[in-house]
């Protein structure tokens, strides 16, 4: 009997425990045939859904930790990349002109 690969990390080492399938690499558990696609929707400060490649505008002055640089209100950031697995709340990866690559929290931006 061949078990399916883990839908989360694509590991081939899944095993069955009762009616659950378990991945030993990422500890993901699911039932066979269950829809395991969980869509994480990242929203801006006004509740608009964001997508990779969107442009956003910063709605608050943001001081950068460990630097004297500040991202000013109204700064437009193009071509964002979303990080749905972010554990620290910084769920947008982007490049800000004059500053460089940084991560932002979606609660401080609005969709442009």
From TrEMBL:
<dbReference type="InterPro" id="IPR013988">
    <property type="entry name" value="YjdM_C"/>
</dbReference>
<dbReference type="Pfam" id="PF08274">
    <property type="entry name" value="Zn_Ribbon_YjdM"/>
</dbReference>
<protein>
    <submittedName>
        <fullName>Alkylphosphonate utilization protein</fullName>
    </submittedName>
</protein>
<dbReference type="Pfam" id="PF03831">
    <property type="entry name" value="YjdM"/>
</dbReference>
<feature type="domain" description="Protein YjdM C-terminal">
    <location>
        <begin position="42"/>
        <end position="112"/>
    </location>
</feature>
<feature type="domain" description="Protein YjdM N-terminal">
    <location>
        <begin position="2"/>
        <end position="30"/>
    </location>
</feature>
<dbReference type="InterPro" id="IPR004624">
    <property type="entry name" value="YjdM"/>
</dbReference>
<comment type="similarity">
    <text>Belongs to the YjdM family.</text>
</comment>
<dbReference type="InterPro" id="IPR013987">
    <property type="entry name" value="YjdM_N"/>
</dbReference>
């Amino acid at each position: 009997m061949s078990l399916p690969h883990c839908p989360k990390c694509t590991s081939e080492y899944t095993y069955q425990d009762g009616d659950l399938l378990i991945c030993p690499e990422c500890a993901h558990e699911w039932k066979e045939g269950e829809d395991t696609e969980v869509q994480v929707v990242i929203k801006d400060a006004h509740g608009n859904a964001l997508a990779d490649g969107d442009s956003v505008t910063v709605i608050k002055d943001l001081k950068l930790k460990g630097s004297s640089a500040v991202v000013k209100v109204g700064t437009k950031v193009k071509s964002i990349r979303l990080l749905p697995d972010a554990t620290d709340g910084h769920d947008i990866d982007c490049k800000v002109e004059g500053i460089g690559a940084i991560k932002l929290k979606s609660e401080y931006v609005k969709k442009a």
